[in-house]
Amino acid sequence: MKKLTPLFAGLFLLFLSPGTKAQTTGADYFAGKWNVLLKGLPNGDTKMFFVLEKKDTTITGVVQDSTGKEIAKIDKAEVGDATATLYFNAQGYDVNLVMNKKDDDHITGSLMAMFDAEGERVKQTK
């Protein structure tokens, strides 16, 4: 009986912790450079790059045009497990972009809840 007690204790602890697994936080997922296509804007579809870096549990970064020129800084970011909302100023307007995780390297979302957005992670070449 004394030999079975540690076994039962081990099994009991195993059943208490079924959800313990390594997970990446939303900030880890969204950190990096994203090529985002904004569809249906008044001046037509527009490509932008969002260069994001993890800072503690949130993200900071900049917005660049298709040539790599900085357009704006990210003023604020709200990050969840599978979603991030980025707030920035573009052409004198305060706007936000919602990015929803689609898979490991792709996002969907919307700009100001009016214009569709699709994006993919820019992979660094080695």
Q: What does it look like?
A:
By secondary structure, the protein is mostly beta strands. It contains 2 helices and 9 strands; from the N terminus they run ααβββββββββ. Strands 4-3-2-1-9-8-7-6-5 form a 9-stranded antiparallel beta sheet. β2 and β3 form a beta hairpin. It is globular, with a radius of gyration of 21 Å.
Which sequence of strands runs across the widest sheet?
4-3-2-1-9-8-7-6-5
State the low-pLDDT regions, or none: 7-23
For the terminal residues, how far apart are their CA atoms? 59 Å
What is the oligomeric state here? single chain
Coarse shape: globular
Give the beta-strand count: 9
- What is the count of helical runs? 2
Give the structural class.
Answer: mainly beta
Q: Kindly provide the radius of gyration, computed on alpha-carbon positions and rounded to a whole number of angstroms.
A: 21 Å
The percentage of residues in β strands lies in over 45%
Specify the helix fraction band.
10-25%
Provide mean pLDDT, rounded.
85
Order of helices and strands: HHEEEEEEEEE
What profile does the largest beta sheet have? 9 strands, antiparallel
Explain briefly what this protein structure is.
The chain is mainly beta. It has helices spanning 4-16, 26-30, and strands at 32-38, 46-55, 58-64, 70-73, 76-79, 83-90, 93-103, 106-111, 115-121.
